[in-house]
Specification:
The structure holds two protein chains of two kinds. By secondary structure, chain A is mainly α. Chain A is about 75% helix and about 5% strand. Chain A contains 17 helices and four strands. A two-stranded antiparallel ribbon of chain A has the order 1-4. In chain A, helix 14 runs antiparallel to helix 15. The longest helix of chain A is centred in the N-terminal third of the chain and has 34 residues. Chain A is globular. By secondary structure, chain B is an alpha/beta fold. Chain B contains 13 helices and 18 strands. A seven-stranded mixed β-sheet of chain B has the order 9-8-10-11-12-17-18, with helices on both faces. In chain B, strands 2, 3, 4, 5, 6 and 7 form a six-stranded parallel β-sheet that branches. Chain B starts with a helix and ends with a strand. The relative contact order of chain B is 0.15. The chains are: A mainly alpha, B alpha/beta. At the A-B interface, helix 2, helix 11, helix 12, helix 13 and helix 16 of A face helix 1, strand 9, helix 7 and helix 8 of B.
């Protein structure tokens, strides 16, 4: 009588580890699958003539860029402080709000005396200066009273302090100016109109926001890379003790870092107010969180990465919901079958690798088997002609942005440009 | 690797946690408004059994007991307090019922939440001699209070609930939170949606519309009501949504523009409404669109925004004019009495609706009460419901009240205003271009 018992397969890993590996593998595949579906679907719908017009895409991208550059400007502050002190300064969003708020009072006064309308560039310069100075000052004060006494403490301590500081600044501002919305005066007509740029008609204000952000960014980059103080900042972020031994005043350098980061937040605060014309004591909260996200997305500690992360986030926020509508594209039978076949092949490869039972890859291999089998069934049965229609996708823009963020971090835990940081960041 | 990678992992976890936090916060800033149709707590099963509801016996010299269940604490307490005052003024104006005083007792707090509505209702039904309840303030509270009050055989009349789920879809189907014994003198949101749809379709002659809500049950319900009414008239509608807390509206406006609408109805609140109207100029394809907001945006701040020039707003018509209540009081006199009694002008508008609700309740109690020779009153609970159900053409400050089979008694006209000149907000508010009365 033949031995019918299945040969005993020994997997060189414990069950919980396997389960996690399988789950992560499945999650990655799902993320990539839906992203590809959304992208291909959007293009297919566009080719069919059912998509957005070219002008609509232009509006989406320009809006996303303007929003993204502002995230980027705020993200610079998160990134710089992280680079130097190694913790996240959550009060940075409030520094941004304070700049915006102080700018409002000056802008309002200048509007009342006519200067805002008569000589806008000068008025704007004054308001910008106010915002920059206020933000830089508040950032420096926060560093002095809330972070310096905690220098050397475990990095969780200043993190918690920064959250407390964030609330403190919010409610201090509320106490000072009240909880109502402050409306910035209307912009001069020239900025509200569309201007032609590189053959595109872009809203003047958005072009202005993008240009100002780029100029500020370049100035900051030159400052950090070329100036003596900038070199000191980089030295301190490499190693505080060695920097001190080299004759660098560490405290002064850290203060400078906060001031420069604050100034960038001030610029962002003013641009934000130009674009959205409304500020109140909680204005800094969500942009602050998103800018932090942008900093992580770009690779925290890396200035170019912060900007790149900000722009990416902005673009995903505005165009992501539209891409989600791409899921409404009916998957052609042929494509579904090809996917099913690929899934089947994956399952087969997975089986081979499971049998090899290499402890490092066995979890993923098991994931390949399970996802492959499920994907095969799905590809051949459910997917042909399938479509997902999601109503009100604009509501999901934050969710989409964060899913993309999580996806990027799963594939590249150090962020888009995180490589350099791995050398720079040493606690 | 190790240490550095570990740090990044922590950072990743932090980001995920923050993402969840931010997502939660997006919805957190719920603007609770006068008409906020609260979270629809669905309580399973109708509990009413016809007949045998019992009766209340009021001994000679004893007062008739009714209660108020209103939001008297929290951020919408100004709405609840306003209505308690409306009830007090009505009781004073109405005087005695068959020789008995009317006692409102201490108002219960509906907390503008389901929990508050439930707790308040339980406290009230524990007092077996209570005949009727004036409340709630918030629709979410009513959804939890109505089943309890209905089961106790009592009646409740709200002056400010507007959620369609509490009554009906106006087409004969009961709402998911409708219970026998529930009445209201406020309008049903569906009327507002229908008014906006009729105006756009019939008066402006527009057939392609977009409705935008912000995920709040009130705005979503109103957007849906509009969409259904507009579709029923023969138009086409797509629904889009924003989040509370959004500032950049480029994405949603671009998607709206892609639908090439002639009319956009966005019954949301500030500041999201501001961002939409201020940013629409930056999106190609929206140049000729007609925009309409709802009562949540009829505020001085919003109407003063330059971009709202020419914009329409739907909302309850609060010009009650010379309508006189059954007590002989009209709205001007009511406001005068209110100001004299409480030392301040009315803080909201629903005191008028609760005034009417109270007068209606007392009138019906008087109608069904059977008096013994010694002055003892017998008030049959079922008879009271029957009498309220039969309400037709009842004179109220807010207009002529008639109850339908599901307790919608509101007399209020819904009107559309047009903001012609943002520098003159008062003129904009008074510039009524269209009116639609329930039942018309």
């Amino acid at each position: 009588m033949a031995d019918l018992s299945v040969p005993k397969l020994k997997l060189n890993a414990d069950a919980p580890t396997l389960a996690v590996d399988v789950f992560l593998f499945a999650l990655r595949v799902l993320l990539i699958f839906f992203a590809a579906w959304a992208l291909v679907g959007t293009i297919a719908i566009q080719v069919d003539g059912g998509g957005l017009t070219a002008t609509a895409w232009r509006d989406l991208l320009v809006g996303g860029l303007a929003q993204g550059f502002m995230y980027g400007l705020i993200a610079l502050g998160y990134s710089m402080v992280y680079g130097v002190l190694g913790f996240i300064n959550f009060a940075h969003g409030e520094v941004f709000m304070a700049g915006s708020m102080s700018g409002f009072f000056v802008a309002d006064a200048l509007f009342d005396n006519g200067m805002w309308v008569n000589s806008f560039p000068l008025a704007f310069a004054i308001v910008m200066l106010t915002a920059i100075v206020t933000s830089a000052l508040i950032a420096v004060i926060i560093e002095r009273i809330a972070y310096r006494p905690l220098r050397g403490a475990p990095r969780l301590i200043p993190l918690i302090t920064s959250i407390g500081m964030s609330f403190f600044v919010q409610y201090a501002v509320r106490g000072l100016v009240g909880d109502g919305f402050k409306d910035y005066p209307q912009l001069p007509a020239g900025l509200q109109q569309r201007v032609s740029f590189l053959g595109l008609d872009i809203e003047g204000i958005k072009l202005f926001v993008i240009a100002t952000a780029i100029v500020s960014m370049v100035a900051l980059w030159l400052f950090v890379e070329r100036s003596k103080t900038g070199r000191a900042i980089r030295a301190v972020s490499e190693d505080k003790e060695i920097a001190a031994l080299m004759g660098i005043d560490v405290n002064k350098t850290i203060v400078t870092t906060f001031a420069v980061g604050g100034a960038m937040a001030g610029v962002a605060g003013l641009l934000w107010a130009m674009l959205f014309r409304k500020v109140y004591f909680l204005t800094g909260f969500l942009p602050g969180i998103k800018a932090f996200t942008a900093a992580v997305l770009g690779g925290i500690g890396n200035l170019v990465g912060a900007m790149l992360g900000g722009v990416t986030l902005g673009l995903i926020e505005t165009s992501g919901p539209r891409l989600l509508n791409g899921l409404a594209w009916k998957v052609p039978t042929l494509v579904a079958f090809v996917l099913g076949a690929v899934a089947l092949a994956t399952a087969v490869i997975g089986v081979i690798r499971v049998r090899r039972s290499d402890p490092r890859t066995v979890g993923t291999a098991l994931g390949m088997v399970i996802v492959g089998v499920a994907g095969t069934a799905w590809g051949f049965i459910v997917l042909p002609g399938a479509q997902v229609v999601i109503p009100g996708t604009s509501q999901l823009k934050d969710m989409i942005a964060f899913v993309v963020l999580i996806g990027v971090l799963m594939i590249r835990p150090i962020g888009l440009l995180g490589e350099k940081l791995a050398v720079e960041e040493r606690g | 690797m190790s240490r550095r990678m570990k740090n990044f992992r922590h950072l990743g976890a932090l980001v995920v946690a923050l993402a969840l936090f931010a997502a939660a916060c997006g919805d957190d800033t719920t603007t609770t408004t006068t008409t906020a149709a609260g979270a629809t707590t669905t309580t399973a099963g109708a509990v009413f059994t016809p007949g045998a509801l019992g009766a209340v016996t009021v001994a000679p010299g004893a007062p008739i007991e009714i209660r108020a269940l209103q939001a008297i604490s929290g951020e919408v307490s100004f709405l609840g307090t306003d209505q308690v005052r409306g009830a007090e003024l009505a009781i004073a104006d109405f005087g005695q019922v068959d020789g008995h005083d009317v006692n409102l007792g201490t108002p219960e707090d509906d907390l503008c939440s389901a929990e508050g509505g439930q707790a308040g209702a339980q406290a009230i039904v524990a007092q077996a001699n209570v005949i009727g309840v004036l409340g709630t303030t918030c629709s979410g509270s009513a959804a939890a209070a109505a089943p309890i009050i209905s089961a106790a055989g009592m009646v409740m009349i709200s002056g400010s609930n507007t959620s369609p789920s509490l009554t009906s879809d106006l087409a004969g189907t009961a709402g998911s939170n409708w219970y026998n014994g529930y009445y209201r003198t406020a309008h049903n949101d569906l009327y507002q949606g229908a008014t906006a749809a009729r105006y756009a379709f019939e008066e402006l002659g527009l057939t392609k519309a977009v409705a935008v809500h912000d995920g709040d049950p009130y705005t979503e319900g109103l957007a849906t009501a509009f969409a259904n009414a507009f579709t029923a008239l023969g138009g086409t509608v797509t629904i889009h949504a924003v989040n509370k807390g959004d500032t950049d509206m480029t994405g949603v406006l671009t998607q709206v523009a892609a639908d090439a609408p002639e009319f956009v109805y966005f019954p949301i609140f500030q500041p999201e409404g501001d961002f939409i109207i201020q940013q629409k100029g930056g999106i190609a394809g929206l140049e000729t669109v007609v925009w309409m907001g709802a009562d949540g945006l009829i505020t001085d701040g919003f109407l003063a925004i330059p971009e709202t020039a020419g914009m329409y707003f739907s909302g309850p018509d609060l010009r009650f004019g010379t309508n006189a209540s059954a007590t002989g009081t009209n709205y001007d006199q009511l406001v005068a009495a209110y100001t004299a009694a409480y030392g301040e002008a009315p803080t909201a508008v629903f005191h008028a609706h609760t005034y009417d609700a109270t007068v209606l309740l007392l009138t019906k109690i008087q109608e069904v009460a059977v008096q013994d020779a010694d002055g003892t009153l017998h008030i049959d609970r079922q008879a009271l419901r029957d009498a309220l159900n039969a309400t037709s053409g009842f004179a109220g400050v807010t207009g002529s009240l008639s109850c339908d089979a599901f307790g919608d008694c509101g007399a209020e006209t819904i009107s559309v205003i047009r903001n012609d000149d943002p520098t003159d907000v008062a003129a904009g508010k008074a510039n009524v271009v269209y009116s639609f009365a329930p039942g018309a």
